[in-house]
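Retro notes (design track)

What went well: tokenization of the new backbones is finally stable.
What didn't: we kept losing track of which sequence belonged to which structure.
Fix going forward: every design gets posted as structure first, then sequence, in one message. First example under the new rule, 215 residues:
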């Protein structure tokens, strides 16, 4: 399977479906320790990307990630919009003049995650979406180092995302509104980590299906 922008409509649709399907659960998580508007904000950005999906499919990856980043910054707003926008804009910059294979993508995604860490002044263990993004980046780099099959790399990414999301349950929140709850923030999965996991697993699902499809 070649990872091409033509897959974007399917990828965006899968993200829209998983967030819609899990909207009630995620909203409950967000209401427990956050503002309660995470899903609504995220869906606004996803809707904007759905409108652009056919246009995005005609671009190269550098242009795709730049446009996605700018769209999310504008449409989502707030912390999530800024952080996801930063992720994709940084990926776009890192992808210039590079062929897109597993090793390159692992490095490109890592650059995006590092930019999110800098923008959010956060790191792993602080009960944020970084607790999903960082393990996923690590999993991608390990897959590239070990030269594993793409199918195995995708499985490992999904497992890393789920484990990262689950790890936030017992963490003490140190960022955002949840940090004001101090010890009471423990026992709740972070909503941003949950939606990050859902979206990554949705992407893995589409890519795995395309990998298995007859060429």
């Amino acid at each position: 399977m070649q990872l091409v922008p033509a897959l974007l409509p399917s990828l965006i649709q899968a993200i829209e479906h998983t967030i819609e399907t899990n909207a009630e659960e995620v909203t409950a998580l967000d209401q427990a320790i956050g503002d309660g508007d995470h899903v609504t904000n995220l869906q606004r950005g996803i809707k904007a990307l759905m409108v652009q999906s056919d246009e995005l499919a005609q671009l190269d990856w550098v242009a795709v990630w730049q446009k996605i980043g700018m769209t999310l910054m504008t449409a989502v707003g707030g912390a999530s919009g800024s952080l996801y926008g930063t992720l994709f804009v940084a990926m776009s910059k890192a992808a210039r003049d590079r062929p897109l294979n597993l090793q390159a993508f692992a490095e490109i995604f890592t650059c995006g995650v590092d930019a999110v860490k800098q923008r959010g002044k956060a790191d792993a263990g602080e009960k944020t979406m970084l607790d999903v993004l960082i393990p996923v980046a690590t999993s991608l780099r390990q897959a590239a180092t070990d030269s594993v099959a793409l199918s195995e790399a995708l499985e490992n990414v999904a497992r890393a995302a789920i484990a990262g999301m689950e790890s936030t349950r017992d963490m003490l929140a140190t960022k955002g509104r949840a940090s004001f709850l101090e010890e009471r923030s423990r026992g709740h999965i972070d909503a941003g980590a949950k939606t990050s996991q859902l979206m990554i697993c949705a992407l893995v699902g589409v890519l795995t299906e395309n990998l298995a499809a007859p060429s």
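Added context from the reviewer: Residues 126 and 173 are 6 Å apart (CA to CA).
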